[in-house]
Design brief:
Blueprint lengths: L3 H19 L3 E3 H6 L4 H10 L2 E5 L2 E4 L8 H9 L4 E2 L1 H7 L10 E6 L12 E6 L2 H4 L2 E6 L2 E6 L1 H10 L1 H4 L1 H12 L6 H10 L3 H11 L1
Parallel strand pairs: 5-6
Antiparallel strand pairs: 1-3, 2-3, 4-5, 7-8
Helix pairs in contact: 5-7, 7-9, 7-10
Length: 208
C-alpha cells in the first residue's frame, strides 16, 4: 500500500497538472503559486521532468504539445505589460521578409526593464496613445499575447525607421497595400498619433 505521504504527493502532482492544463500548459512561478500550487510541488515536478523550464521562472507541462511560438509566449508570460511591436509584430502579421532575432517589445515609459535569460528582447518606451492604441490580442499556445495591429505597427515602423530601417518600413507598407482589406483611415490615425503622417503619406500615394 502507498503511504499517506505518497498519496498526498500524487494528489498534489495531479492537482498541479490540472492547473497547468487549464492555463494552456504554461505558467510563471507566481501564477502557479497563486493558483494553489505549492513551491515544493512545483520544483519537484521540475526535478522529475514533469515540467520543462522555458525561461527563468516560466514552466511548461512536459506532456503538453510543444510550444509553436515559445519566444512570444515566454515574453507575454514574463512581461505582462509588454506589447509585441515593430519587426516582431511585422513578422506575426506577415508584413516583412525580415527574420527577427530578438523579440521587439513596447513598454510604458517608467516600466522596469525586463530581465530574461531567454529569449533575447529589445524594448522600446512608448507613451500615452502611442502605447495604448492599436493593441489586439491573440491566443498562442493557450497564452494571450498582445500585439499592435498591422496599421499601428506600420506607423510605429516609420516612427522608429532609424532603428528598424526605412527599407523595412517601406517594404511593410507595400505588402500591406497588396492585401485586399486595407484600412487607410486607421493607418493615418495611428500615423497621426506617432507623428509620421507626412512621412508615410507619399509612400501610400504611390502604392495605392
Amino acid at each position: 500500500m502507498l503511504s499517506q505521504d505518497a498519496n498526498n504527493h500524487g494528489f498534489r502532482f495531479d492537482k498541479a497538472v490540472t492547473v497547468f492544463k487549464k492555463h494552456g500548459g504554461i505558467l510563471r512561478t507566481t501564477q502557479a503559486i497563486r493558483a494553489g500550487i505549492h513551491p515544493t510541488t512545483l520544483y519537484a515536478m521540475r526535478d522529475s521532468g514533469a515540467l520543462e523550464v522555458v525561461s527563468r521562472g516560466v514552466f511548461h507541462l512536459a506532456d503538453s504539445p510543444s510550444l509553436g511560438n515559445p519566444d512570444l509566449v515566454t515574453v507575454a508570460t514574463r512581461v505582462p505589460d509588454g506589447v509585441i511591436c515593430l519587426i516582431s509584430a511585422l513578422a506575426f502579421h506577415e508584413l516583412t521578409t525580415q527574420i527577427p532575432h530578438e523579440v521587439h517589445v513596447a513598454l510604458p515609459r517608467g516600466a522596469e526593464e525586463p530581465r530574461l535569460d531567454h529569449p533575447p528582447i529589445k524594448t522600446y518606451r512608448f507613451t500615452g496613445e502611442a502605447y495604448t492604441e492599436g493593441v489586439e490580442t491573440h491566443e498562442l499556445d493557450g497564452v494571450i499575447v498582445r500585439f499592435y495591429n498591422p496599421e499601428k505597427t506600420l506607423a510605429d515602423c516609420f516612427k522608429f525607421r532609424n532603428k528598424v530601417g526605412l527599407d523595412t518600413a517601406v517594404e511593410a507598407v507595400r505588402f500591406y497595400c497588396e492585401r485586399k482589406r486595407i484600412k487607410v483611415d486607421d493607418l493615418m490615425r495611428y500615423a497621426a498619433i506617432c507623428r509620421v503622417k507626412n512621412t508615410i503619406r507619399p509612400y501610400l500615394e504611390v502604392l495605392l
